[in-house]
Write a structure and sequence with these properties.
- The chain has 13 helices and 21 strands.
- With 413 residues, it is α/β, with parallel strands linked by helices.
- The strands form five sheets. The protein has a nine-stranded mixed beta sheet with strand order 12-13-11-10-9-8-7-3-14, covered by helices on one side. A five-stranded antiparallel beta sheet has the order 15-16-17-1-21, covered by helices on one side.
- It binds S-adenosylmethionine and iron/sulfur cluster (SF4).
- Iron/sulfur cluster binds next to loops.
- The site of S-adenosylmethionine has 17 residues, from β7, β9 and β10.
Length: 413
């Protein structure tokens, strides 16, 4: 479906992506780039989770932090970044190294003084005084808590362990001054009804969320899910119940799967035009390349120790593919900016994608705005389908290859 939709919109044959073993990272200047830090440790590994993580090992975690401090220096040497709007810690469970987050952030601030926001993903188990004090001392101002659902039975169906009263745990957040509190929910969990999902949304708002990220349950081929995601029609009803609940709460849709309180600042991980990823499995997007770090913690530590960058594979974009990549992620954000496209590619948006945009407009997927286009609800629904198909077709296969071996010989997807 995704491939067909893209073909329909772009009228081009889609070639396969070729990931090659890492050759060389080009020194480059970026006007603006986000930083991503991957912390690959968890206390328990959830069956449904596709992200790269291993069981927490305190000794390896210390080595990992020492390696990360070196990788930050390396990134500084390689990229001349004028503006770093945000640093995002994802995982895994970054709070497992909370005692060292202040040290890492100081290093980042020293190397990239323009950093504006520090964001971190938390498991609800992390909502303790010790961790929250560490986080606020390290000057994080945006947090995201992985609740998934407040319903105990649904959590069981998902294979997720949350603390018994997550709402009580979330109370602790009122003692700290975060500018954004995001709560992650998953929809399409076996047994979930539109009413249960709407209840989850309202409970997240009551618990203090300024943003709610809602992810359709995706069954990755290498995950260990007992229950399977729902069919398209039921998923559509769930998505509609989210849109309705958001409307009732005065939340606006800030991306295809995100709703935020009006006036609050948006929290997002890697939907930047450019980003540099650090840590095992961290990904980097420049104007010409996409790099993925090794999916092995010991190999990561050894490689950075030798003063080398721990990148496993790279993808070299043609300009057209890079433009498509930009267009795809702009659609996720629901806005396609003519000015931004011109700034990045030095070409007019309509000159490159004029035909596709006209067709999307005709199909009522987009509408015109002062600075380009905005996805309509219809367009957002088709994007929701396309993004899931992309995850199955490309992301699942890429990660599976990287999980198999720390340094793949290269592969096509
Ligand atoms: C790295 S994880 C969460 C961070 C933290 N370790 C936790 O478990 O709360 C980021 C988010 O991805 C979403 N997610 C993970 N696996 C998913 C899947 N198979 N389908 C849909 N969403 C998923 C969840 O909402 C999760 O909170
Ligand atoms: S969902 Fe969170 S806690 Fe569970 S395995 Fe994934 S990263 Fe770890």
């Amino acid at each position: 479906m995704f491939i067909q939709l893209l073909r329909l919109l772009l009228g081009k044959k889609l070639k396969r992506f070729e990931f090659k073993p890492f050759q060389k990272e080009k020194k480059s200047s970026l006007q603006q780039a986000g930083l991503y830090v991957h912390v690959p440790f968890c206390v328990r590994l959830c069956d449904f989770c596709p992200y790269f993580k291993i069981k927490f090992d305190p000794v390896l975690a210390e080595q990992y932090v020492n390696g990360l401090l070196k990788e930050i220096d390396w990134v500084k040497e390689t990229y001349d970044i004028s503006q770093v709007p945000s640093v995002y810690y994802g995982g895994g469970t970054p709070a497992l190294i909370s005692h060292r987050l202040g040290e890492i952030n100081s290093k980042i601030r020293k190397q990239f003084p323009s950093v504006n926001s520090f964001a971190i993903e938390l498991h609800p188990d992390n909502l303790t005084v010790k961790v929250m004090d560490d986080i606020s001392e390290a000057r994080f101002n945006m947090i995201s808590v992985g609740i998934q659902s407040f319903d105990t039975q649904l959590l069981k169906n998902l294979g997720r362990n949350n603390p018994k009263s997550p709402e009580k745990k979330l109370n602790i957040l009122s003692k700290y001054a975060f500018k954004t509190i995001d709560i992650d929910l998953i929809f399409g969990i076996p047994g979930q009804t539109p009413q249960l999902l709407a209840d989850d949304f309202h409970r997240a708002v009551q618990a203090g969320a300024t943003q709610i990220s809602t992810y359709p349950f995706i069954d990755f081929s290498y995950a260990n899910n007992a229950g399977k995601p729902m069919k398209k029609k039921r998923m559509k009803r769930l998505l509609e119940s989210l849109i309705q609940a958001a409307d009732q709460e005065g939340f606006e849709r800030s991306s295809v799967w995100t709703f935020k309180k009006r006036g609050s600042e948006k929290y997002s991980s890697i939907t930047r035009d450019f980003f540099i990823g650090m840590g095992p499995s961290g990904t980097t997007l420049t104007l010409e390349n996409f790099y993925i770090n090794t999916f092995s913690v010991p190999q990561y530590c050894q490689t950075v120790d030798k003063g080398k960058r721990p990148i496993a594979v790279q993808l070299d974009f043609t300009q057209r593919w890079r433009m498509l990549y930009w267009l795809f992620w702009s659609c996720y954000e629901m806005t396609i900016s003519r000015v931004r496209f011109q700034e990045i590619f030095n070409q007019p948006l309509t000159g490159v994608f004029g035909r596709a945009l006209k067709l999307a407009d005709f199909l009522k997927f987009i509408e015109t705005t002062n600075d380009g286009y905005r996805l309509t609800d219809k367009g957002a629904y088709y994007y929701h389908l396309a993004e899931q198909a992309l995850t199955h077709t490309y992301i699942d296969k890429t990660w599976k290859n990287l999980y198999k071996t720390p340094w793949p010989k290269g592969f096509k997807i």
